[in-house]
Design goal:
The protein is mainly β and about 140 residues long. The protein is about 15% helix and about 45% strand.
């Protein structure tokens, strides 16, 4: 009988935990810093969310510049940022390093407020995740 009660209690606890929203730490105001190195790019990003607004700073570097005929991958690189907003989750990307375009740079530094962009996230309440990404254009 005790085994059945323990199993029932454990099942109820697991079921209740599955209904909880993501942890507050995954989308709370404050600053999140990330640094990554992949075979295609490296960079560092800091995203701060506060009552005063949102600030994104950092850099990204394309490690495979050029097209396929020069050993590159023909892709741009940027940070992908997953936001928590008052209406749910959304995502955007940082400024991109696109060295294979005329005038493009392999290394790009940035410091901006993404909410000021027409297509940027609105009513940001926190950051859920950041990661380096390739963007084919």
């Amino acid at each position: 009988m005790r085994g059945i009660l323990r199993a029932t209690a454990l099942t109820a606890a697991i079921g209740a935990a599955a209904l909880l929203p993501p942890t507050a730490a995954s989308a709370t105001p404050g600053c999140v810093t990330d640094s990554e190195t992949e075979d295609f790019a490296r960079g560092e990003i800091t995203v701060c969310v506060s009552d005063d607004g949102v600030r994104v700073t950092g850099h990204v570097e394309d490690l495979k510049p050029g097209g396929p005929f020069t050993g590159g991958d023909s892709a741009c690189v940027a940070w992908s940022i997953d936001w928590q907003t008052a209406t749910g989750a959304t995502s955007s990307s940082s400024h991109m390093a696109c060295p294979h375009f005329p005038g493009g740079e392999a290394y790009v530094e940035f410091d901006y407020d993404p909410t000021e962009s027409e297509h940027g996230p609105k009513n940001v309440t926190g950051v859920r995740d950041t990661s380096l990404a390739t963007i084919f254009m």
